[in-house]
Fold this protein.
Amino acid sequence: MPAFDAGECQQDIDRLIKRFPGLTIGMKEYGPDRFQMNTILETDSALAADLKTFAAKVPGLGQADSLASIGLGLNLPVLIQALQRYALEVQQAPFNCDDLQGINGMWVDISDALNNPMLLMSAPAITGLKLRIDSLFVQNYEPSGTGILTLASPNAQGLLSMASSFVPQIAALGLSNNGEVKNLSPDMLPPGMPSVSAALSSDALTVGFGIDTPSVISDALKAPSNSEPLMLYGHLTDHFYSALIPFAEQMSPFGDELSGNELSRYSSLYKNTELWIKADDYGLEIGFAVELK
């Protein structure tokens, strides 16, 4: 394999450095009960401005209000348009360096993926989601739990129509965007499935699983969005690790990493763990924080 020749590739290298001029990794907070690490991928001003437009507000995104959660906030139409523009830029001015040909191929693959009819159809209807896990348990030797799924949309009524085409039971609820919580008839659910309730606002659809208190679903629907431009947020609490112990005991033959002892140790050490990705004036920030007991 020939050695990398920086001289022949210098123009392409300069192009990448101009677009991504820096990478910073450091501790933003370090104490006896909490530490936070941040990685900032610095970009040029044009890409930094684009990144801010990708983020979309999702009710409750950024709140550590349950056992665990994971959520995305992405303005898909804007993101798709930007990616198509970047792909065209590379197509019109491809990288010439042999060692960087993979970048050209990557953007060809991205361009092909962006033409997926399902993606193009669903992109205008959904701008984010949050899956919140409220409880996990074993019932009759089967895993079960409760939680809430929130889907954000600039047109929640259109989102409802799309969701109903995949899950016809949703249409049976007759939801309107007044926030009223409605329960799906148990007759329409598979045996053993927890109760399902849903509510609709002008910009979100919230579906609760095993949530018997309507106000909990209403609060999730009306939960404020994080003021920062979050693209991704997730968290795990000590109670989540504890809740996994019964599952680990059933699955112990699959490996020690799933052992109840390990999960119990995590539960005793980590009160809350958070991960997020957001845009800022410098580019893209990836944050990781751990609150210790």
Remarks:
- The longest helix spans residues 76-92.
- The radius of gyration is 23 Å.
- Residues 137-222 form one domain.
- The chain has a mean pLDDT of 89.
